[in-house]
Amino acid sequence: MSTAEKGAANDQGFVNGDNSANANVSRFITPGGHPADSSQPAFPIFHRKIANPSPLGLYNIQTRGISAPNVVVGPALFYGGLCQLLAGMWEFTTGNTFAATAFSTYGGFWLSYGVIYIPWFGIEAAYEGAPDELASALGIYLIGWFIVTFMFLVASQRSSLALSGVFFFLMITFILLAAGEFTGSVGTTKAGGVLGAITAFNAYYVAMAGLLTPDSSYFTLPTLSLDFPNKKK
Q1: How many angstroms separate the CA atoms of 81 and 76, rounded?
Q2: Inter-residue contact 89 to 100 (CB < 8 Å)
Q3: pTM of the prediction?
């Protein structure tokens, strides 16, 4: 048996509670217990010597309904963008592919959204004198994020109702904002802003549910698991 195979066998013995597993298994599995601990409500949480980055990533920056969004360029870049990107990278260390992909993706969204309003990049200047063309370009940009969010909504169907709600409301937000850009309808854009606010509060709830752990709080928040086949296990 090769060294790699022995290590894998030791890992499996440790996870299955086999006390005869080689003591060197500690090099392969981080201390803390079974790696598939589902006691946390939002994402599957894995035992690691690292704080849970999920709540940080779930705090989204909302710029909807602001007539001059340039004031939030800083938060969009560093909080919505950089912090979510970092949260996504940290989720990779926990083996949580879904959260890692989601946080990294929306970190990229906020970074790309923020630079639109930075004159140095010349994005708005390129459409000077052609506001309709800029609106169409932004509409197509938002449609792309609507599609990405729909994919995350489908992928979250066995997580929790609270988490799936974030992607559902965000998906509707993107499609309404895109429709507002295409049609020039202020009402449609405002409706997108309202859905964006609902999305934000939904995300705050999921973030709070992740923060209120049995170790740090006297109570927790329900997120309503959608993993029905495993509820009785």
Answers
A1: 6
A2: yes
A3: 0.75
